[in-house]
Design brief:
Blueprint (H helix, E strand, L loop, with lengths): L2 H10 L6 E2 L5 E2 L11 H4 L3 H12 L8 E5 L4 H11 L3 E6 L15 E2 L2 E2 H6 L4 E4 L5 H12 L3 E5 L4 H4 L4 H7 L4 E6 L14 H7 L21 H24 L3 E6 H8 L1 H10 L16 E5 L5 E5 L3 H10 L14 H6 L1 H12 L4 H11 L3 E2 L4 H5 L2 H5 L3 E6 L3 E6 L22 H12 L15
Parallel strand pairs: 3-4, 3-8, 4-7, 8-9, 9-10
Antiparallel strand pairs: 1-2, 5-6, 11-12, 12-13, 14-15
Length: 457
Amino acid sequence: MSRTRSRWSSSARAGSPARASPSGLLCSPRPWAYGHAADRAASAPWPARRRSEVRAMSTGPLAGVRIFDLTAWMVGPWCSSQLGALGAEVIHIEQPDVDWSTLGAGVPPLINGTSIGYIAWNMNKRGLSLAMKSPEDRAVAYELLKTSDVFLINMRPGVAERLGVGYDVVSEINPQIVYCAITGWGESGPMALLPGADTPAQYVTGFSTGTGVPEGDDELNRHFTQMDATTGNYAAQAILMGLVARKRTGKGQRIHVSMLKAGSALQSVRIAEYLASGQQPQRLGSASQNTAPHRAYLCADGQFLGVSVTNEDEWRSLCELIGQPELAADARFAANADRVDHREELDDLLEPVFRGMVRDYWLMHFERAGVPVGYPMTWAELRHHAQVLENDYIGPVETAAWGRVWMGGPPWHLSKRPARMFSPPMPGEHSQEILAGLQQQRGASEQPAGAPAAREA
């Protein structure tokens, strides 16, 4: 029995027995009584967790890597949070002369006045307050950069230079540093100096054009900050590659990632399809323009079942399962290309079939037949789904200022040095600790060292 199932069992004994539905949901009169095995560690007193966090950071796969994190909102903080989960020491710089609300802290929903989004984006970091326009604070930044492995910033082109932390300055301080700049639109061109954000990036990259229903409007986008997260993930990949290259060559380098470039890369297949065919991707709701049947069908209980047939074996299995094996031999539906060409006719045949039984009936039989299926889940269903619980995909992080916060964990599992999620800092929370460390390094009588060719902001 796995540790997660053991956790369920001990919880179930306190009330009615738990049972799993065919859809994988954990059914119980008290579903919120169930938690993850991680609960035990997360419930430790705050000081104990702090000490354990420090120990875990020192043993992660990026242990010993220091990141100077001059980022705000989501795209940059998300990038550094991923690296922090892998054990890097991320020092997140909060500028005291910058409005707290502009950094995402005022975006609802809130916990104790702070955006849950801000809390999630800034996991796995320590906080240092530095006024980058101040020569004194900039000198502290330069001293930190001497011992940093990565410099990360997400601001418009030219801002880093005005703050005195452009690549020329930073690389002169530390030639081995991996310098990563994230922008909205790129560093040249007519849009380069415009502010970037997730929703405009979805529009400009073409995501919105292909999202929606036939004959629908063009202004739809995929919520949940898709372009922020995508760009942040690509930036984290690039930083890891920069660190690998440095290990081989002994030299740092400058990396640039833009939301526009990331969005184009993410859609590389769709862009290639358009350039080859000249056909703009269609808005098909839940359907796919490349395969069929591939969409959500309404079932007898008013619930939707998402079916994704990707090859001919699955198509034949579907036909057998619905009691119409002759469809597999129908010339209109014999191959995927035929089914795509006759999509409407196929849907006209399948829609009444799926309306004949409830969703969980179809779900159970399709899973047994090996045909890919799913269904649109609410967050509550996802939170309590047996597969999510079994693998601890959603877990708690204890924080001093905001209590226990539940969220999705790291997207990877490493068997030797697993990733960890740690509490985010309040702005400048670790300033005294970090500055004391610098003081210890240089000696009590030594003054902070400035940087060569330092520029006034």
